[in-house]
């Protein structure tokens, strides 16, 4: 197993020296960005109000809203755990084509299933926790379903990126408010609303490997109504050369069955009943068709090795109806009500050889309801409390003509209800100190009742430095498919005796404002997880414990009005504590990930450069001439992005990814193609 001592030493060195000397020697800054990655308000305690004001020629900073759908509520007391925000302008500048693209530029994320040769088996991880151990929200309500296996996990590539207003990443007490699964964190995606006179915007991009991306939207507002509808279409065939050890390598040396096609539609309508009451409706519809890549398997779409030709169809629908009400005569009491419907249809199908075929269908629907009261009951006390409920229905149909799998063919209809009461209190116990206590009491129709508390603390040592800490007790329940559904693709058996994954997650760190233009967040994070879920000898099992510890640094530097930069680095030691893999790093979780870049923005002209680094991860299984301790090699990618205005309504965009044209193994035998390019046009009128 690769030693990670050097990674750890580097992480501590970075955390200690970055505020003063390392940054001064670095030209590695963010590709986007004259809009902050996160707000200065998040970085400091109330005592920082005494700090000098921001200079007039500096760009404004954005204050992330409370994680509530569609509408701004009361501004909370400073957070006890770091909050990161990526606004729409930044998403556009970095050239993101999916939500997964957005997340891989944020601190702590290792996104393996995005871009060419994206293998959905290898997943997305945040601070060492899988996508199923984090909570994903769309406008404050659940996005995704109770499905946990590879073909049912939240698909981050399908949400229409052109409709995203901002993405908020939080941890700590967010799990108290939005669910107990938050070993990792909570990701809330807020969609755009219409503003001002009617406006039509459109864009088109074309790139190598038959890549095409089309976007269009129409939006506007009247005195009481805002409206916005959007459309996005993306396709690529991903036919490029890959090494002999790669997955899905054909006889011609090219990747096969890696094509992707998706259409997405979105709409948002908000009606202001009066100045104190509003209702909103938003809808997202996706249609996705893609080939499936199987990490580590050789072969081709020949009759004898047709395993590699499986396809995945995914249709999704997310509807939300929300209302916001300011109670009383003041601004210190806000009631929000949200109703949601989420439907996901996954269908996996393909041949297993000359004569045999298989199909696996998972059709889920999720109904959700939430009522929350946000009340600043005193100048130094803020309360957030309420209730939420979800009902998840799974209909599955598995069919295989392979003789040894046919006996497991089945139709399942299962449902699970989950209801919770939650409360979070934040006190300013002193001018420079704040305390946060929360609790979530959950009733689950499958796993009975359980309690999850949380706590946090923040102390401003000076006008420019604040310490913070958070802790939360977490629980992630097995998915309905893991409990009841036979996986005909892999031959994995369900297990209705599974118990929840339980444990805790915690952070400690400090936020620093070195100047009005230079801010940083430095965090130690950790988690302990028991009853980890994994497949053993072809069946889902609770296999043991994992302890995760790591360091995270996020720095933003506005070097000049037109020049901005960023630097993110995360070190993650996700160590298996029990079982045959005891002492090993979790598979697919790299020890180190980092991003850095510099950006220029002036008068519509934009130029951005970004470096992305991954230390490599444990391949874990399905290896060639290697063992379970084998790691993929480290890699780095340099990306350039530019926008050139032709006139106020038309611009040319250009993106070059992996400028050095060095193919690398992203994770477990999935290889990038080397240099990628896109050329596009943007227009608005």
Automatic annotation (TrEMBL):
Record domain TonB-dependent receptor plug: where: 82-186
Signal peptide location: 1-24
InterPro entries given in the database record: Beta-barrel_TonB, Beta-barrel_TonB_sf, Plug_dom, Plug_dom_sf, TonB-dep_rcpt-like
Domain TonB-dependent receptor-like beta-barrel: 310-659
Keywords from the named record: Cell outer membrane, Membrane, Receptor, Signal, TonB box, Transmembrane, Transmembrane beta strand, Transport
Keyword RNA-binding part of the UniProt annotation: no
Cell compartments where the protein resides: Cell outer membrane
Its membrane topology: Multi-pass membrane protein
Coarse class of the protein's main subcellular location: membrane
Protein family according to the UniProt entry: Belongs to the TonB-dependent receptor family.
Protein name as catalogued: TonB-dependent receptor
Organism: Gloeobacter morelensis MG652769
């Amino acid at each position: 197993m690769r030693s990670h001592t050097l990674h750890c030493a580097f992480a501590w060195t970075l955390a200690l020296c970055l505020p003063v000397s390392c940054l001064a020697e670095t030209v590695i800054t963010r590709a986007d960005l004259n809009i902050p990655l996160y707000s200065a308000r998040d970085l400091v305690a109330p005592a920082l109000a005494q700090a000098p004001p921001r200079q007039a020629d500096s760009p404004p900073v954005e204050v992330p809203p409370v994680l509530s759908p569609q509408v701004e509520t009361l501004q909370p007391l400073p957070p006890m755990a770091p909050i990161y925000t990526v606004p729409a302008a930044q998403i556009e500048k970095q050239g993101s084509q999916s939500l997964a693209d957005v997340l891989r530029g944020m601190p702590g994320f290792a996104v393996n299933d995005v871009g060419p040769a994206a293998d959905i088996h290898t997943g997305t991880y945040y601070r060492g926790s899988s996508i199923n151990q984090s909570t994903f929200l769309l406008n404050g309500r659940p996005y995704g379903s109770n499905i946990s296996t590879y073909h049912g996990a939240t698909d981050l590539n399908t949400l229409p990126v052109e409709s995203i207003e901002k993405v908020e990443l939080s941890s700590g007490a967010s799990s108290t408010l939005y669910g107990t699964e938050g070993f990792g964190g909570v990701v809330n995606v807020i969609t755009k609303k219409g503003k001002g006179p009617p406006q039509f915007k459109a864009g088109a991009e074309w790139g190598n490997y038959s890549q095409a991306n089309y976007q269009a939207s129409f939006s506007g507002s009247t005195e009481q109504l805002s409206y916005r509808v959007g459309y996005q279409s993306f396709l690529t065939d991903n036919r490029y050369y890959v090494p002999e050890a790669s997955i899905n390598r054909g006889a011609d040396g090219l990747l096969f069955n890696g094509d992707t096609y998706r259409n997405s539609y979105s709409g948002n309508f908000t009606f202001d009943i009066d100045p104190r009451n509003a209702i909103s409706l938003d809808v997202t519809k996706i249609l996705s068709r893609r080939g499936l890549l199987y990490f580590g398997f050789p072969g081709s779409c020949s009759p004898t090795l047709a395993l590699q030709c499986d396809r995945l169809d995914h249709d999704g629908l997310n509807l939300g109806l929300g209302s916001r009400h300011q109670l009383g005569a003041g601004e210190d009491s806000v009631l929000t009500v949200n109703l949601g419907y989420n439907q996901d249809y996954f269908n996996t199908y393909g041949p297993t050889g000359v004569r045999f075929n298989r199909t696996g269908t998972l059709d889920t629907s999720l109904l959700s309801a939430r009522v929350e009261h946000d009340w600043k009951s005193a100048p130094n006390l803020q309360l957030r409390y309420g209730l939420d409920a979800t009902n998840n229905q799974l209909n599955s149909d598995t069919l295989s003509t392979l003789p040894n799998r046919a006996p497991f063919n089945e139709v399942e209809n299962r449902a699970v209800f989950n209801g919770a009461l939650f409360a979070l209190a934040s006190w300013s116990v002193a001018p420079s100190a704040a305390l946060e206590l929360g609790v979530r009491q959950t009733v689950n129709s499958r796993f009975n009742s359980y309690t999850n508390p949380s706590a946090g603390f923040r102390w401003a040592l000076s006008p420019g430095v604040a310490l913070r800490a958070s802790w939360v007790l977490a629980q992630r329940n097995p998915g309905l498919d893991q409990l009841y559904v036979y996986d005909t693709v892999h031959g994995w058996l369900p297990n209705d005796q599974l118990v929840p994954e339980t444990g805790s997650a915690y952070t400690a760190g400090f936020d620093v404002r070195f100047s009005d233009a230079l801010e940083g967040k430095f965090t130690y994070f950790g988690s302990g997880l028991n009853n980890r879920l994994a497949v053993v000898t072809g069946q889902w099992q609770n296999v043991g414990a994992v302890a995760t510890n790591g360091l995270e640094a996020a720095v933003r530097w506005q070097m000049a009005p037109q020049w901005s930069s960023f630097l993110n680095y995360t070190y993650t030691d996700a160590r298996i504590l029990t079982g045959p893999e005891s002492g090993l790093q979790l598979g697919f979780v790299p020890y180190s990930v980092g991003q850095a870049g510099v950006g220029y923005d002036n008068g519509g002209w934009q130029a951005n450069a970004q470096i992305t680094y991954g230390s490599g991860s444990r391949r874990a299984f399905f290896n060639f001439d290697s063992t379970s301790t084998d790691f993929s090699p480290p890699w780095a990618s340099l990306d350039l992005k530019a926008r050139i205005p032709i006139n106020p309504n038309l611009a040319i965009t250009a993106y070059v990814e992996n400028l050095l044209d060095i193919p690398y193994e992203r994770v477990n035998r999935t290889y990038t193609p080397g240099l990628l390019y896109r050329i596009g046009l943007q227009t608005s009128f």
